[in-house]
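assembly run, all chains below
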Amino acid sequence: MEKKAAALPSKFVDQLVVPGDVVLDLTTLANSTIKLGGGLRQECDTITAMKAGVLRFAKPNKYWVESSQKRYVPCAEDHVLGIVVDTKADNFLVDIKGPAIAFLPVLAFEGGTRRNIPKFEVGTLLYVRVVKANTGMNPELSCMDANGKASGFGILKDGYMFESSTGLSRMLLSSPTCPVLEILGKKLSFEIAVGLNGRVWVNGASPSSVILVANAIMNSETLSGAQQRIMVEKLLQRVQ
Amino acid sequence: MEQRLANTWRMSVNDKKFIESSLLSDLRVDGRRPFDYRKLSIKFGREDGSSEVQLGETHVMGFVTGQLVPPYRDRPNEGSLAIYTEFSPMADPSFEAGRPGENAVELGRIIDRGLRESRAIDTESLCILSGKLVWSIRVDLHILDNGGNLVDAANIAALAALLTFRRPECTLSGDDGQEVIVHSAEEREPLPLIVHHLPVAVTFAFFSNDNVVVIDPTHKEEAVMKGRLTATLNTNGDVCAIQKGGGIGVLQSVVLQCLRIASVKAADMTSKIKDAVESYNTVRAFRKVKRHSAPIAVSVDGSVAIKKQSQDGAQKIEL
Amino acid sequence: MRGPQLSLNQTQKLRLEAALEKLESFSSKANSVTVADTIPVNYEDGVLKGHGTSEIDGSVVATVCGVVERVNKLVYVRALRARYKPEIGDIIVGRVNEVAPKRWRLEINFSQDAVLMLSSMNLPDGIQRRRTAVDELNMRCIFEEGDVICAEVRGFQHDGSLHLQARSQKYGKLERGQMLTVPPYLVKRRKQHFHHLDQYGIDLILGCNGFIWVGEHVNTKDPTEEEQASKSEQEQVATKLNRNAASLEEQERTYTPLETRQNICRMANAARVLSTLGFSITVELLIEIVNLSISLKSDIREMLGSEFCVLVAEVEAERRSAKIKKK
Amino acid sequence: MEYVSPEGLRLDGRRPMEMRQIRAEVGAVSKADGSAVFEMGNTKVIAAVYGPREVQNRSQQLNDQALVRCEYTMSNFSTGDRMRRPKGDRRSTEISLVIRQTMEACILTHLMPRSQIDIFVQVLQADGGTRSACINAATLALADAGIPMSDLVTSCSAGYLNSTPLLDLNYVEDSAGGPDVTVGILPKLDKVTLLQMDAKLPIDTFENVMQLATEGCKAIANYIREVLQENTKQLESRRGT
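ok done. output:
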């Protein structure tokens, strides 16, 4: 999706767009190439939004619409949390909140051979990487990084998993660390795994701290940084 | 097959284990204590007899309508009350469109038993003409969002809607006293139903560990629980209905303990419902608008006339 | 409680009751339990809980109705009336329910259909080789839906399905006879489940799953078999297609003489009588009953009547009492 | 109306704490894997159990446990007025659900994964307490089918009329409009699995009525146990060694 266009970014950048908004008019742009990401589409000489969200621009020429949604559209190299749904001879069927069930090949584990296929009961929670995500095909997952190492992927034991939105996941993964995690991290010790598909897994020493962290994260979705701080402080006080 | 796998909501084993193990130390995943209800809000529509109840994430709408019909043959002097439930696939992917499923039927029956068999609504005052014409009250309960514990939310919605419902006043006239006049709302103030007491449903969930009992389970807790008990009580300390339809066995002493807790909770809920209804009534009194229309007189002689009458009655109420 | 479903007249009723009472007196004080009964065990020796037991509040409790059996430390409850519980090596008779990719699914009175893989049975040509796509397409020529076959339990796969095998000439499709079902607890596991009863010219297969086959005797080393074995696959398919228009010669080959047919029915009815009375079914007993019916010159259909049933009960009571006295 | 005479007798001559005559027979349906007929006075129900067998609808198959299904029907001729009953009305749907959940609680379903157990109960004569009779019949049929269970479930009902707790209501007493408490217990564990009640009753009175119904359940449990014990003995002795 490359198009000749001017280097001048659209006036909509970092603004809210809704489906149908004309984001760029190609006729007004001089020779240049732009790259379109998710949520945008070309219609004759215009680029229009097809998702509600904030239009983002990255230098030199990338545009995409960032939105928060409950379902997940698989994208290669995303790290997600999946739930095992069924076991077949060659694949584990994994639910990643996407439009189709994802396949995790039984050999896609560090040092995986036919002889040491792991046994997952239905409902097992996995931290996995999306390897292939093509339309019309079931996405393919892997429990290895690009170098064939486990590096943290695989089964998540115990803890508590809750589902929120993709926007919240991105917030939690953003750097610098978002205020909620920052404050919680100072006061409590816990493990957290965030999947880009909106699933978050938390584990800690005691159930009460896990519940506190989980609820603090869920509450923080619509709050600003300062509000997040206040909310977390309040929660911590109530517990102590 | 694969589509079915992709579209059903499922829970990870981690969550199941976590919910159960944290309940052992009296902790619930949403931060409540075992015998706390979620936040309850009761709203009313513009029209009389409609309510909207939100209990945590659970969202239920209640709608009451009345119709003039011939009575049942075995009860010529009593009006009737019927409960209809609608589980829309919108509320939960596991609900299927079309015929009501088992759970919808059970929900309707629990509420029906609580309200009707305990005679909470005075049905005798709904009789207009003995053996010929009575009011039939229909309560429609629509589940809009399933966040767990539909029974309690639906029961509150039904009560709130019934308390704010008003039926047109009817008088008898004519030489033989067989003529029924349905007065419009402008002419005579519509009458509220006579409600003797408020049976409030309180639901408990039991888990595989014997000693764990919680009130008002959420959707996730319902997926883990092994049994459920719904007790319907009123403020006089009367048990109006109980439903524990199988599931894990519990000791008799636990059942009785649940009933005592339920009776406290029922009093709580009753006052919340009454407050909401009162504030609605104040608002309603301010809102009164005068309208003009003539009364309709229909003579009731035979069955054909009765049918016609009942249709008229229905139309009136929908006005 | 559970009476044989027969219409008896007064004398027959009394005779049957007497016979059954006699049988009851012979039974060793069987340790029968019902669901949720506590089974007394000696905890000092250590206890292994087997089938049909569970633990409630530290004591061993039965989960089915049946008889308590003890083998060293192992305590288990042998259920009587229940569906078939497969054990590896059992010989079973089953009916094909479905022809699926590379496998047949068989109804064998178990909690699931059993699976017979194409690869775990000998091909009709008897050659050991990899199964090809052509073999797969021709699966219906070997067995099709509704066929009764005999096989052996191979074991459980890791996904919990039950697999069978038929790697011998004696297994395979059963024809020219009848299959009947009896409660599986009446068939005991023995060394021999195939019986060739020369005197009647019939084959009897007592499947461990309670399916019993009675049919005309087939010689496994039959020349026709060899002939068939030499046939090429294509020819077989052709035979299959022409089956409806079978030649006279073929009809003659598959013709069962009247006497054999009568013997088959007599044997089947003998098994039915034992099943209604709830007596365990063994080949010796079946032969005895068939001989009894022949010696009485009773019609085959009379065998299912109340009079014959009562007689069998009495004979059996006598037989068991004689056996006990001998000891 | 007077349901208990001053002498303390009920309409059918029973004492308040007296149960109707009960009778059970195992093996009433020859085709079924397990079956039973259960009678409480004039109430008579028949139950048949099929399974564990292959799941009919593959999409319903459960990989870790057996699928239990239950169908409750009432014969057209079971009540005084003989009317055609629509199949799947709200009452029978609810009773089917309740029976299924009650039996599911005691069947060790995890021992029979990927299979299906069907329970069919039919009311042949209805004279009050059909729900309880159905559960008792279903328990017997399941035990007869050799399906492993953690405990038997037995059920009995009790009511409260003329300020007297009454055990095992018949149709006339049931339709008097008083409270009707149906209890189902696991006798070995002494736990309540089924509890249904309607109409109005103060908590303390309810406690007494429930207690009475529980006693009734225990009596039925003893009877059912005897029936099963006798049945097992007979089967074993006839089978011989």
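Chains C and B do not touch (no CB pair under 8 Å).

Residues 171 and 215 of chain C are 14 Å apart (CA to CA).

not gonna interpret more than that til we talk
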